Amino acid sequence: MKKSVLAILTTVLLLTSCAKEFNQAFKSDNYQYKYEYAKECYARGQYTRAITLLESVVTMMKGSHNGQECLYMLAMAEYNNKDYETAAEYFRKYYSSYPQGYYAELAKFYVGQSLYMSTPEPRLDQSQTMAAITALQEYLDVYPMAKQKKEAQERLFTLQDKLVQKELYSAQLYYDLGTYFGNCNMGGESNYLACIVTAQNALKDYPYSSLREDFSLLLMKSKFELAENSVDAKKLERYQDAEDECYGFLNEFPDSKSASLAEKFISKCKKITGNNEDDTTASAQ
């Protein structure tokens, strides 16, 4: 018990002493002293304190022997403190101030890495994801033999997956809205049309995505539902399109769990299109 109390008292004294030292450093007019103490705080993982001190000296340090290190350390402190957007700004500032600097390549990488860390989950707006992709691609363009090349490429693949997932959520939402009229002027069928356009664009933009089957399934289902809900003048053409889509799905994904659904749609479409195998055989005879 006495040892526990002693340990607590020792910790309190150390914390009090550190706080006193920090306040002395912060109030000091000696910028070099502030900078050296900021480096100590950074080394101890006290990033908030390091940031406070570095922000107070970074302007004064510009152009000095420690100017580059000070700005880069400030950016890294923000990054380690998980303020990624602020970190990205400081890394940008470093690269624009010291494009040939000692930390230039790392700063360029960490612009993209910081933006990558601040990207939202796929259901939300993906503007930050696009910014991260642009920054990482710029890094690879400027440094084709970069030390962090593999890591940057992996980040790009992950970010692209987010964009694809975002498109899948959008397509699924349109499909789920179905014949709901409230969100459009052209009637409920435009929800299926919107799903079709979204899925087709995604398949075109991301042809090798692991979600290709998901988009193709939504495309097939939307075309069938669109035909089902069409006015008589458009039914035949849309059923023919849906039937073709079903065959295309089966050809590309013959082992899909949704193969039976595609076959079911084909059977229903044939009742309208008249594209029955028996009819085809009879015509040939």
Structure write-up:
The protein is an all-alpha fold. Helices cover 77% and strands 0% of the residues. It is built from 13 helices and no strands. Helix 3 (47-61) packs antiparallel against helix 4 (67-80) and helix 8 (149-177) packs parallel to helix 10. The model is unreliable at 5-15 and 278-285 (pLDDT under 50).
Question: What brief labels describe this structure?
Answer:
285 residues, mainly alpha, 13 helices, 77% helix, elongated, disordered C terminus
List the helices and strands and how they pair.
Blueprint: H1 2-27, H2 31-43, H3 47-61, H4 67-80, H5 84-97, H6 104-117, H7 127-142, H8 149-177, H9 189-205, H10 212-228, H11 232-252, H12 259-273, H13 277-284
Helix pairs in contact: 2-3, 3-4, 4-5, 5-6, 6-7, 7-8, 8-9, 8-10, 9-10, 10-11, 11-12
Helix content: over 70%
Average pLDDT confidence is: 89
Task: List the quaternary state of the chains.
Answer: single chain
How many individual helices? 13
Distance between the termini: 101 Å
Strand content: under 5%
Structural class category: mainly alpha
Short overview:
With 285 residues, the protein is an all-alpha fold. It has 13 helices and no strands.
